[in-house]
Amino acid sequence: MKKRLKLLATAISLLALTATPVLASGSKAHKPSPDAAIQMLQEGNQRFVSGKSTQPHTNAARLALAGKEDQGDHAYATVITCSDSRVPVEILFDAGVMDIFVIRVAGNVVDVDEAGSIEYGLAHVNTPVLVVLGHTQCGAVTAVTNAVQGHGHALERNIPPLVDNIEPAVKRAIAAHPKAHGADVIPFGIEENVWQGIEDLFMSSASTRDIVKAGKAKVVGAIYDVSNGHVKWLPEDKVTEILDKVEKNPARAMNAMAGGH
Predict the structure, then answer these.
(1) CA 40 – CA 135 distance, rounded (Å)
(2) Of 58, 181, 212, 243, whose Cβ has the fewest other Cβ atoms within 10 Å?
């Protein structure tokens, strides 16, 4: 009997260490501050890179919770990134179900659909951070870089209007790095494209600007290295500079809310 009780106690202890706790009915998960949310993402990526992923919130209890509660009570980040299969968002941040509101589009561009999705993530899912996540070896940035340098090729009819947001980023990269030619421009274009996405978002979304200015959420840029899993976080000061620039632009969107709905 004592041996059976000891085995039972051991099993309960292991279950307590591995199981995801289920919130009581009607309770709400606590949302972290913007800085705390960024730290959670950074720590998750460090675990992933070091081979120590915990794969949180992936068990049956979490799925059952997802069927009962709103994602807005749990998700702590909105991430817009590329559709590239080498960029598995939840895996690279060691996150799980209801942790990250993910938007994916080729080239991580921010146009109408993406801006609307981001607004939903920030204003309705109430995530305290938005990450605009570029990645190394981005095919969309590579294609635009080649085209700008006169080495483009025929594209299907819907691709050019999809990636035209990337062109200003590539041209800035070329101007800022005159000694770079050919493929050497691409890494610079990838970073500039992250900044372009943030600027395009601020230009088209008064709601996002208001949320950021009120301190309810932060917008940050980052680049994922597909060869080693590491996320490089870009300077937050640059985001502030872009926001200040947009606030002085008379062409920016002024109405945070849609009319007639």
Answers:
(1) 20
(2) 181
The count of domains in the chain is: 1
Distance, first Cα to last Cα, the chain: 68
Considering the domain boundaries, does residue 93 fall inside one? Answer: yes
Q: What is the span of the domain harbouring residue 118?
A: 32-247
Structural domain contains residue 253:
no
Q: 55: domain CATH number?
A: 3.40.1050.10
Q: Between 25 and 167, where is the model more confident?
A: 167
* Residue 19 domain-assigned (yes or no): no
> Could you tell me which residues are beta bridge partners of residue 223?
134, 232
Is 23 a domain residue?
no
